[in-house]
Specification:
DNA Primase, Chain A, 16 strands, Dna Topoisomerase Vi A Subunit, Chain: A, domain 2, alpha+beta, DNA primase DNAg catalytic core, N-terminal domain, 5-stranded antiparallel β-sheet
Amino acid sequence: MSKNNLNELIQIIEEKASIEDVISDYIHLEKRGANYWAICPFHQDTNPSMSVSPQKKIFKCFTCGAGGGIISFVQNYEGISFIDSLKKISSKYDIDYKQFITDKKQIIDHKKDKIIEINYTAQEFFKFTLESMLNNFEHPVVKYLAERNLTHEDIDTFNIGYAPKDDSLINFLVGKGFTEAEIVNAGLAREVDYKIRNYFFDRIIFPIEDANGRVVGFSGRTTTGSGPKYLNSPETRAFKKTEILYNFNKARSPASLKKFLVVVEGFMDSIALHKAGVKNVVATMGTAFSETHQKNIKSIAKNIILLFDNDKAGFKTTIDVGSKLLTQGFVIKVLVPEGSKDVDEFIEKNGEKALLALFSKTYEFLNYYFDSILSNMTDDSIDYEKIREYLSLVSKETDSMKREAETNKLLNKFPNLDQEQIKSHVNALSKIKVTDVPRQVIEKPRKSRKNQEKIQIIDQRILKNEIKILWSIIQSKESLDLLTKKSFFFKALSHKNIHSMIVGMYDSGIQPTFENLESKTDDENILNRLAMVKEFSTRVSAEKLAEFVKLNIMDIQLLERSRSLLKIKERLAEASTTNQKNNILKQI
């Protein structure tokens, strides 16, 4: 690809494209004076903080700092590559980008484009076939659509069609100028006994679109019970199941505006919600939740509601998807279609209004697991496999305060568990190993006075190091960023609160000072600790602050190891039998 050609394309786009026109395809803009304002889609915004300047052709968020031009907005909003963002904007303004982009990828894209072209043609065939039989009310397909309350409008909105019992699709596509090889390559036909036969046979057809609304594949549902319930297109250059979420293209804009996305499993659940007015919904199509799925979702919403079937399989899917999203910092809630197997059945029994009311009864993801599995257990009936699974989920929570709260909830429920051991595992950001969780009730050991004095000295040193770190992050946002990179969490509650205040100020574009921090609270403990931080003084230069923070983090890590060893030594000394000592050593 020629750099000059690419620069020429960028120049043409910047001349022809209107930034407010492009951005308004994704989010709502409100004009104020010469500029437009919007709720920023790149952070959890509540008041319009993003400005769009038509004259300068730039956007800028005055809260999170996101900014740039037309191309960078599309690239960041959709989570696509720079080249793909150029193509998308070019298509909107009828700019022929192909004369500027001529690398090997373009050759691959040409083959992908051919598949999409065939798919569009096939979609029209499927739609026409279904529309021509809708008046035959006795046909099994028409009966099924009626049972699922799918109207003519729904069929048109989702481009639902029908694949007949013969090979007429192949004849139709050949008549449109496509070769048999191209039809097979698109996944619409296959070779059987040296003959080309339709891939989809006597099935209701749901077209599958990519993030840009292009038809990349299909899924066919049987109404006869013959073969799999749903048959998806085979993988092609255009269709990769692990990269596609059904209805993503339609859900993107409403999800961005509402700041949350609903994730369901099947096509009909997605369509049922869409009909009920919940348009910010996607379906996984029964496939494992992939990293690409997570990346696509993250580009439009950080708040997720999981709504899967109300059975064992649905529970398993909820835990699997939720645990993957949890590690990426999503805020996850769970909705259960109470008294029904799935969303569609719930609506049929209770109506759309009842479904919308159900959204006020969501569970926090970890609460959902706790209430579903652990709430009925007692100390005498602990299922340690379930405890380990719950702790594994808690350890994936990226919010330290939530992680601590969930751990304490477990320990309050089961007071005979070894509190120190469980807390130390959960506070570690690494995944909890199954063998690390106690399998038996362990008595709380008596504490020796000598060890306690040593532990108190270590705790005081840790607090002093934390004070130094707090002082450093007040001076410099780079120091704060280093804490995040190092996955460092403060131990003292007052330090955690001060840290949260500092983060909030930086997020709002405010440089923290002791004066404005003190003005944010009337908590005596926090004010006293702020006074201690304020009294700390050092000759560390601004250039060496990062190194200073690293050294203090390393010192805390070493102190914590020493503290753990003292605790283990104490427990070994208090163990009365060899068996108890061996159990303690197994849990290290």
